[in-house]
Design goal:
The protein is an alpha+beta fold. The protein has helices spanning 13-24, 62-71, 76-79, 105-115, 120-130, and strands at residues 5-9, 28-32, 44-47, 50-53, 89-92, 98-101. It has two domains: 1-83, FAD/NAD(P)-binding domain; 86-129, no CATH class. It contains five helices and six strands. A hairpin with a 2-residue loop joins strand 3 (44-47) and strand 4.
Length: 150
């Protein structure tokens, strides 16, 4: 019997995860990547002794990563050295004003209220809505039937 094969286009987080799951189920996988190395948006470059991350600014939904690592028999904590950075992001406006996104709510209050009075309550609503879990899908989001299922 001929082995099942698959081609995965892109070696970013999604492509590598897909390829790993397929391979775990016995599929012979070829990953095609346009860049010189895997990583997709999770990349970096160096120039004149300085290093620049080109990838995601924030690590959101860590539970998704933890679940994917666990389903592949690995642990995020064992394989990644994640370090908290605070502030996580700094915005610089045309007028020279700045906003540093920090987990310190007192500092966020002071910054937001200085930019737009009475804006902090909206920020808190945003945080509350953003921390709510997304509804679990039923696997039919793309409404496409694939001939092969693992």
């Amino acid at each position: 019997m001929k082995a099942t094969t698959a081609i995965v286009i892109g070696a970013g987080i999604g492509g590598i995860t897909t390829a790993a799951h397929l391979a775990q189920h016995g599929v012979h996988v070829t990953v095609l990547e346009k860049n010189q190395r895997p990583g997709g948006r999770c990349d970096r470059f160096s120039k004149d002794g300085y290093h620049f991350d080109t990838g995601p600014t924030l690590f959101v939904m860590p539970h998704i990563y933890e679940a994917e690592f666990a389903s592949l028999g690995a642990s995020v904590d064992d394989l990644l050295d994640l370090q908290r950075v605070d502030p996580t992001y700094r915005l610089v406006f045309d007028d020279g004003g700045q906003l540093a996104l920090t987990s310190d709510l007192k500092i966020m209050y002071e910054q937001l209220e200085a930019i737009e009075p009475d804006s902090f309550d909206g920020f808190l609503r945003y945080l509350t809505e953003g921390s709510s879990p997304l509804p679990a899908g039923d696997g039919t989001a793309c409404r496409v039937r694939f001939p092969y299922r693992i």
